[in-house]
Design goal:
alpha+beta, three-stranded antiparallel β-sheet, elongated
Length: 68
């Protein structure tokens, strides 16, 4: 299972992490950036000082099952 972790900065300068499990294995950097930009432009989560202001980073954690 792949998990996408997107890190934003809010107006207070603090990090906010949003994790999406089970992302496609072939998701591209451009798609992730577009998603993060949409989240910012639509102001989906917070208002006031907690409002997300900018993109900080993104990463994908890839997990594989090991069958013994």
């Amino acid at each position: 299972m792949n998990t996408l972790t997107m890190t934003f900065l809010n107006k207070e300068g603090k990090n906010f992490n949003l994790r999406l499990p089970k992302v496609r294995t072939d998701i591209t950097e451009v798609e992730v950036e577009e998603l993060m930009t949409t989240i910012l432009s639509k102001n989906l989560f917070f208002a006031g000082e907690k409002e997300l202001e900018s993109i900080d980073s993104a990463s994908i954690t890839r997990e594989e099952e090991i069958i013994a």
